[in-house]
Amino acid sequence: MTTSATPFQTPPRLTSLSHGGGCGCKIAPGVLSDILKNSGNLPGLNIPPQLLVGIETADDAAVYQLNDEQALIATTDFFMPIVDDPYDFGRIAATNAISDVYAMGGTPIMALGLVGMPINVLPLETIGAILRGGQDVCRDAGIPIAGGHTIDSVEPIYGLVVMGLVHPSRVKKNSGARAGDVLVLGKPLGVGILSAALKKEQLNADGYARMVALTTQLNKPGIELARMEGVHALTDITGFGLAGHGLELARGAGLQVRIDWARVPIIQGARELAAQGCVTGASGRNWASYGNEVSLPAGFGEVDKALLSDPQTSGGLLVSCSADSAAEVLAIFRAQGFAEAAVIGEAAAGTGMAVR
Length: 356
Fold this sequence. Notes:
Helix content: 25-40%
């Protein structure tokens, strides 16, 4: 007599269950813009003066002033798997969600879990490992997961609602850049390309280790950067890529962002993988949404364009600061383990983005 196999004897690869992974799941910026044009704040809705940051410049989080000394930061982020290891998926998703608080210059205080899992497809041990990864990252950030919500969904989804605190005078918007500022990027680009290679089973062990190390590195320097008068704007580079989030910074400040492409750090191996066709669909959707706002130099190839629009999951902070503050900004990054942080350009009079 034979017995039927349990459905969990060979669990499926996590990435095989999702149509997109990490911040590459984001709705394309052009489509999102059209959606928001037809929603936004309802006419006549009272916007309280305590709401210091809302949806106006597509900033990283909402900020609400509580009193003269404290403002509450509120944000949420969730996505489908970018890796197959459930524990690493949980760590990456949690690190990415917490980053928005750091990008506003705040200190996280607590999180709520957002969990959607195909219960009849994934073993409970796999789902538990995802949650454990998120819990461990929150422990590293010094915050509890104080609650949350779960659903049975077709695709695995995990993320967090995160809240933080910041002094109202230290809120760092993405719209505060000033002409003459230099731009500093905290992490190298290429996460989307490595994730595409992983899904195609073309990413080696060293590449996987680099990707996980970068995407689980908390952007804690944002707390210290917020205390610097010379730091005028902060954002983090996620699903819209360096070009997309750089353009948000440019639009918010009414300036042009100029990128010195040779100075932009790239993850080791990402350029070669992109040349082999390991590029996400989100990269092309990103470029279709905003490419007309980006001026490229002659000879700027398709691989470079893919890197410029590559969706970053848990990417680095982009800092706009005075030229005489750049050395201190870099020193803060380096002291906290961000060895590849680099000055990549400047903010100047004009509009859009110019790549040099």
